[in-house]
Structure formats: structure tokens, C-alpha cells
Amino acid sequence: MNNNIDFIKETTSNYELEYGVKIPPIDITPEDIVNNDVAYFEGRELYNGIYNLHVDISKLMKSRDHGEVIIYHELTHLLDSQKLVDVSNSYEDFRNKILSYSEFHASEIEMAKRLEEIKESVNRYSRIQYDGRKISIDDFMSKTTKFVAEAFDNLNFNSGFGSQIVRLFYLLGYTSALKKVNFQYNPDFRKINPLYRQHCKNLKQLLLTDDACDVDVIASEFMDMFNIFVTTK
Ligand SMILES: [Zn+2]
């Protein structure tokens, strides 16, 4: 167990060096996570400035590089939360920004970490980390796109609206990281439920731009999708 805690601490130091940031001390709470998550910060805790990383050690340590990409994703949420608290007028507002903008940003940083190990120029056959094994970028992105379409077709309250819609923000974050290494990927929304398709296109336009994005506008697109879900279910 101590080795695993050391691994998390070492990865945190690497993140600080790589991005020139200071990460506050983090508590690590090992637990068995029953859903697909490997690690998470709880929204309320982040909102209150409590940095407690809940982590399923056996899932995290499937492989070292898998563990690293997960930790990079989570640390980005922590840093985003410090900024988003200041521009949120309630916990709900904060949570919507974490589930939209911050999921995009965390996925972008996560994909950038995956891409570091590719030594040549990135192409569709380049192999990257996926759940403890290596697959091509093509396979990675088509799996992610399929997950997004499935999420919009199977929205329900029990599995948490936010935890399904976030997949769209993962897809856009990955796409943005690829764009930064000059690999143009064009997310295909033709299989997305028509009720939500226009919002997906709006978010693609808002997030995949070189200009700074407005976190309030991103969160309101997220809320629009939530409202469609509530009124049509
Ligand atoms: Zn996340």
C-alpha cells in the first residue's frame, strides 16, 4: 500500500513540475469503487476546499502509465476547483462547471499525458494507454464516441445524469489534446440522439477553439441538456 501512495505522490510532483503549479496537500482515501470510476474527488469536498482523493488502488495500478493518466485527470479537477469556486454563486453552479468545463479540461490534460509516450508524430495508428493496455488512437476515439452516443440514449437518474453526460466532455477534451499535437479529429455526432445533437455541436464549437472559453456559457449548455432530459423523459 505504501508503494502505491508513494506512486501517487511522485506522480503529483511530476504534474507540478510539468505544469509549473503548486498542488495543495492531498489526503488519499483507498476504497473499492463499484462503478467505472478509478479515482475521484467528491464535489462537495472540493467546494469546501477539502482535497481528498478517493481511489480504488487495484484499478489504479493496472499499469503504471494507466495510473498516471488517471491521476493527471484528477489533479486537473483539483486545480480547476480552486478557480471555479471563486466564479460560482452556489454549490450547484460550481458542480455544473466541474461536470462540464472541468471534465473537458481534465480529459485534455489526461490525453496529453497519454500522448507523451509517442515519440514520432501522432497518427491514427499511434498506440496509447487505454484501461491498462495499449490501443490505437483510432480505436480509442471511436470507442469514446460510441460511449457518448450510448450515454445520450440511456440517460436516467439512477446512474446520475452528470456522470453520463460527462462522456461528451471527455470526447471533446481528448479531441482538443489531439489538435494541440496537430492531429485533427472530427467528432462525429450523427449517432447522437437528435434531442441533444445541436448542444453537442455547440459545445464542440465553444470548446475546440483557440480562444479562451467562457465557463458560464459551457455550464449553461450543460444545464440546457439537463432540462431537455427532465422535460422529455
Ligand atoms: Zn473527471
Highlighted features:
binds zinc ion; three-stranded mixed sheet; two-stranded antiparallel sheet; mainly alpha
Give the helices and strands as they follow along the chain: HEEHEHHHEEHHHH
- Beta-strand content: 5-15%
**Roughly what percent helix?**
55-70%
Query: What's the number of extended β-strand segments?
Result: 5
The overall average pLDDT, rounded, is 93
Regions with pLDDT < 50 over 5+ consecutive residues? Answer: none
Radius of gyration from CA coordinates? 17 Å
Q: State the strand order across the main sheet.
A: 1-3-2
Note the overall shape. Answer: globular
Bound molecules: zinc ion
Supply the number of structural domains. Answer: 1
Instruction: Specify the structural class.
Output: mainly alpha
| Major sheet | 3 strands, mixed
Number of helices: 9
Distance between the termini: 45 Å
